[in-house]
Design a protein that fits this description.
Elements lengths: L1 H13 L35 E6 L14 H10 L4 E3 L5 E3 L2 E6 L5 E6 L13 H12 L17 H5 L19 E5 L2 E5 L7 H4 L31 E7 L3 E6 L13 E6 L3 H9 L5 E3 L10 H7 L4 E14 L9 H9 L3 H9 L4 E2 L15 H4 L9 H15 L7 E6 L2 H18 L3 E6 L1 H9 L5 E7 L6 H4 L16 H12 L3 H18 L3 E13 L3 E2 L2 E2 L5 E2 L4 E2 L3
Helix pairs in contact: 8-11, 15-16
Length: 566
């Protein structure tokens, strides 16, 4: 397939550098979904540089230390900037740091900060801002869901888990012992636990963003939006709950001359039909993934009607259902396997999603780097097959083991989305037809849904995972015991060992073999999650909108976008 060949090429290219997705996809042609054509070479810049997009859900937070979803990621990217940023080719470019040096052993990074970088209130951005912000993210009381992304830093895990009785490593109670320090006002020195080739790209991830020092004393810092002090290309102007979010260009941003948009208006609607209509009527300049969606039943018609504006792009992201392995009846592995084996994925992608998605039988998606090419090519996702008769047999055995004559009531939860609803109904119908099991489907508002998942208040829940960086570790670490993104509460000692062994291994072949062994435990042996399909990014972009960047994982960046004359 064209997409597959492209992703192999891209991963080989990425072997020479690191890539960050920011909770996060490659495009046919260039590896990203960016039109970098010069306005001067075509129609010229439009006088009105106001971009209009839609978010299907309101960001649950604007605190980088609490962020964990694509909606929040998109908005935070407007407001903040890390030490580096990722360009349209997936390469690290100067962010707050103008340059950096990496020691020969790969353990020490020295970042030189731009002395012209300022907060939106005019304060200078200093190395100490990063030290303090990373300390804040790692403090146990902050309970950052992505604190573990800082564990590459020496002593960071020991500090974050200093009050965790199950932690077997060296606990650190003094942050001065963590491997990050400001050697002067504009120099940040970072020491890692082990060489981590993708660490530089990780510093563009939102958990690594600096936060203004006033956040420590102002408990309304992240909710008093008009007065939020930020360091990114835009500042918050409006946040009308359930209606819209508006950001305006930040004139104090050190690279303000690179920002052509003066304003970005984000409507908040969960109706894909309304979003598509708004796009067609000119109220939106962009529609579709990752922050919006096009009705799946409209995709064939839209593709035919607007062929030059339609894109379906392969991305490194997986759509799956997760089981609460501590909640009946899914505390039984045979019942979990029965549910996973009894659905038919091809009709789901052909007739429901209709965006070129690929049926998934593993968790690591195509596009993620392996030893020499793609991990998914080197280690096939053949961990199970769809087999209704075998599924019925496993269900019967599992029920017998648990003493069931009938299964307990089962509810599948998903966040508000027309497309998630269609998928849920299709799968529930397959479970009814193939297993004789009635499953209730329940729609939940985004914030409530995330909270219920995090608190294990579910039996089966819709989920998706996009790469934060290009390595299988990003997909498999999350299922280790105690990981804050492990909503299933899956725990397996051998799995934990396999994943953790990859951190210290310098042998690429051994690392990838350990990842494959871990994925086998996760899917084939335990079926803690039920893979459904590997995502594509389906979108419509107005011909006059240029410079939108979609990376290999599906994360989108509008900060360097601009509008041409129509």
């Amino acid at each position: 397939m064209k997409r597959k060949s492209l992703l192999v090429l891209l991963t080989l290219i990425l072997a020479f550098g690191t890539v960050l997705a920011a909770c996060g996809s490659k495009n046919e042609g260039t590896g990203n979904n960016t039109d970098t054509g010069s306005a001067s070479e075509s129609n010229g810049l439009a006088k009105d540089q106001v971009l209009k997009i839609n978010l299907t859900a309101e960001p649950p937070t604007l605190d980088p230390a609490q962020a964990k979803d694509s909606q929040t990621n998109t908005v935070l990217k407007f407001l903040y900037e890390g030490l580096v940023r990722i360009d349209a080719d997936g390469k690290e470019q100067a962010g707050v740091a103008t340059d950096w040096k990496i020691s020969e052993d790969g353990l020490k990074y020295v970042f030189n900060l731009n002395p012209e970088a300022k907060w939106s209130n005019g304060d200078a951005i200093t190395a100490e801002d990063f030290v303090r912000s990373w300390e804040r993210a790692l403090k146990p009381e902050t309970a950052s869901p992505y604190a573990y992304q800082l564990y590459y830093i020496k002593g960071a895990e020991g500090y974050n888990r200093s009050s965790d009785e199950t932690f077997e490593g060296t606990k650190v109670t003094d942050f001065a012992q963590v491997g990050v320090k400001a050697t002067d006002e504009h120099t940040l020195e970072v020491t890692l636990e082990n060489p981590t080739p993708y660490f530089l790209g990780l510093t563009a991830f939102y958990t690594y963003y600096p936060v203004h020092q006033s956040a420590d004393t102002n408990d309304k810092f992240f909710t008093d939006y008009k007065n939020m002090i930020v360091n990114g290309p835009f500042t918050m102007d409006q946040f009308l709950k359930g209606q819209k979010i508006v950001v305006k260009k930040n004139d104090t941003y050190h690279a303000a001359s690179d920002i052509k948009l003066t304003e970005i208006n984000m409507s908040l609607t969960s109706s894909s039909a309304s979003e598509l209509q708004a796009y067609k009527s000119g109220q939106l300049d962009y529609t579709g993934h990752p922050n919006g969606e096009i009705p799946t039943d409209q995709i064939p018609a839209v593709k035919a009607e607007l062929p030059n504006e339609f894109k379906a792009t392969g991305i490194a992201s997986t759509y799956y259902y997760q089981f609460n392995v501590n909640e009946a009846p899914f505390n039984n592995v045979k019942i979990r396997k029965a549910f996973a084996m009894s659905i038919d994925r091809q009709p789901i992608v052909d007739k429901v999603t209709q965006g070129g998605q690929i049926p998934a039988f593993g968790f690591v998606p195509p596009g993620i780097r392996g030893e020499n090419g793609e991990f998914r090519d080197e280690h096939k996702d053949d961990y199970f097959t769809e087999n209704v008769e075998e599924a019925k047999k496993l269900l019967e055995e599992g029920m017998k083991e648990e003493g069931y004559t009938t299964l307990p009531a089962i509810t599948l939860i998903y966040n508000t989305s027309d497309n998630h609803a269609k998928i849920a109904l299709a799968i529930a119908d397959m479970w009814k037809k193939n297993l004789g099991v009635d499953v209730k489907t329940e729609n939940q508002e985004w914030g409530v849904f995330l909270e219920n998942r995090q608190n294990q208040n579910f039996q089966v829940a819709r989920a998706g995972w996009s790469a934060d960086y290009n390595d299988p570790y990003n997909f498999l670490e999350m299922w280790t015991t105690g990981n804050t993104n492990n909503d299933s509460k899956f725990s397996n000692a051998q799995y934990d060992k396999d994943v953790k062994d990859t951190v210290k291994s310098a042998d690429p072949a051994a690392r990838m073999a350990a990842f494959a062994d871990a994925e086998k435990i996760l899917i084939q042996d335990e079926m803690a999650v039920m893979p459904i399909f590997y995502y594509t990014n389906v979108s419509l972009t107005k011909p006059y909108l240029k410079g939108v960047q979609l990376d290999f994982s599906g994360a989108i960046d509008f900060t360097r976008a601009y509008l041409e004359e129509k």
